[in-house]
Design the sequence.
């Protein structure tokens, strides 16, 4: 069995807070200019998956802003520090920091993006209603922005709402939101928003089992994300397109895509292993009859799932190991792995998982 999404590992990338250019107009001082440049660079580091660099720059910008009492800089530094915590999967700390930013800096242009960042985390945690509420709060304060910036922001937030609508099963509504965002992105040459919109459209078609359309949009999203070195999006995109190629029995293409997902994730400075693709590659090798390779990757996936406390990864890893040893006709070992999976499903009280192993 393949894994598309695991809790605490962001695959579907949402609109990232990007209003770093939207500081209040004021007489520029050398100190404030430096802070703005640092925060801009911190945002770019996040987009490339460079967590350590983003953290360092955000902390420095925060310290400098405190020194000169630069409220706008403090607000954006809080935003960047919160999104870095989310990338590190420290979601409770991230939510606390972002909510504190909204309370402390209510008159700044960072507030809409702070709401967006909270909505992103809530969606990652599976709290769709709370996520939509945060996105709607972001739209309510979007008048802080003017002109093109306001329209860009609203397009991205509506795309995020579409992602939540997909999870809630409103596929038509989700497609409508994503296509509107894509139309805006294409009209304004916004490559980042194009990539995110195309990825989300692909996800919706994927959920509906329309793999031809899903594959088309994933390919377009990869092209756009690659063109701007959008590191955070690429591992998930490679993984999702690989799953499509797997279903189409284009196994060599799927193998290369999984390996690209693993390589791209490894190249990110935070080094968080991409458990989905490691597991999925093990599953693919079983289908290809390469049992030794399959076992190698499945064991790696199990080890990482245990280390990172990903119960769903442990379930799928055990059940897939059962299939592997069943294919090898080592039935006693296969039964033990199936029993492990059944126990995990029981502990999770997950009826879908239990039906798969009973």
Sequence:
């Amino acid at each position: 069995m393949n894994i598309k999404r695991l809790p605490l590992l962001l695959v579907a990338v949402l609109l990232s807070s990007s209003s770093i250019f939207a500081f209040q107009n004021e007489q520029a001082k050398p100190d404030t200019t430096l802070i703005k440049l640092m925060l801009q660079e911190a945002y770019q580091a996040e987009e490339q998956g460079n967590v350590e660099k983003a953290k360092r720059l955000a902390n420095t910008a925060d310290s400098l802003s405190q020194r000169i009492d630069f409220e706008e800089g403090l607000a954006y530094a809080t935003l960047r520090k919160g999104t870095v915590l989310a990338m590190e999967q420290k979601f409770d700390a991230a939510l606390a920091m972002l909510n504190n930013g909204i309370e402390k800096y209510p008159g700044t242009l960072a507030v809409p993006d702070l709401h967006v960042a909270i909505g992103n985390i809530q969606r990652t945690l599976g709290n769709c209603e709370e996520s939509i509420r945060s996105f709607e709060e972001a739209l309510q304060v979007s008048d802080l922005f003017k002109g093109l910036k306001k329209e860009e922001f609203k397009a991205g937030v509506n795309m995020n709402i579409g992602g939540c609508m997909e999870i809630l099963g409103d596929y038509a509504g989700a497609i409508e939101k994503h296509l509107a965002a894509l139309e805006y992105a294409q009209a304004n040459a916004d490559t980042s928003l194009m990539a995110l919109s195309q990825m989300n459209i692909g996800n919706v078609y994927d959920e509906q089992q329309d793999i031809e359309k899903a594959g088309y949009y994933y390919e377009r999203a990869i092209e756009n994300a690659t063109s701007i070195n959008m590191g955070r999006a690429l591992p998930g995109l490679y993984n999702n397109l690989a799953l499509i190629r797997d279903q189409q029995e284009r196994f060599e293409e799927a193998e290369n895509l999984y390996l690209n997902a693993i390589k791209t994730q490894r190249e990110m400075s935070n080094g968080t292993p991409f458990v989905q693709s490691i597991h999925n590659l093990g599953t693919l090798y079983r289908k290809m009859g390469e049992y030794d390779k399959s076992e190698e990757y499945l064991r790696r996936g199990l080890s990482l799932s245990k280390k990172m406390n990903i119960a769903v990864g442990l379930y799928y890893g055990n059940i897939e190991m059962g299939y592997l040893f069943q294919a090898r006709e080592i039935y006693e070992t296969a039964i033990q792995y199936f029993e492990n999976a059944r126990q995990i499903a029981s502990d999770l009280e997950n009826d879908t998982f239990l039906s798969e192993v009973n």
